[in-house]
Specification:
Blueprint: H1 4-25, H2 31-37, H3 42-72, H4 77-109
Helix pairs in contact: 1-3, 1-4, 2-3, 3-4
Length: 110
Amino acid sequence: MNLRLIIQPLVACILAIRAGLRDARENQPPFFRALVCHANRRRDLLRQGWKDIANVFAAALILDVVYQFIALRTVYPGEAIIVATVLAVIPYLLLRASVTRFFGRKKEKQ
């Protein structure tokens, strides 16, 4: 079950790279900066980001609940949500912004 510590961030990173490349192609600002700075687009950005990460978050949540049940014989929902957030959402946000920034600058130089 420790494989979840590798698989969950890996899948989140793959999805973040895809989304970051899409943002760079469409000349969008980095996701997290746009989320903070552009209040008029915040709802659409949150909806798009959640759509991209929802499946990974759900899988991370389910894996953690199963792990807790097997290892601890009880389930702590709050802990499962925190672990899923740390393993899926945070890597997604960080990498998506980085990929957008990197490939956006690379595109500007060409």
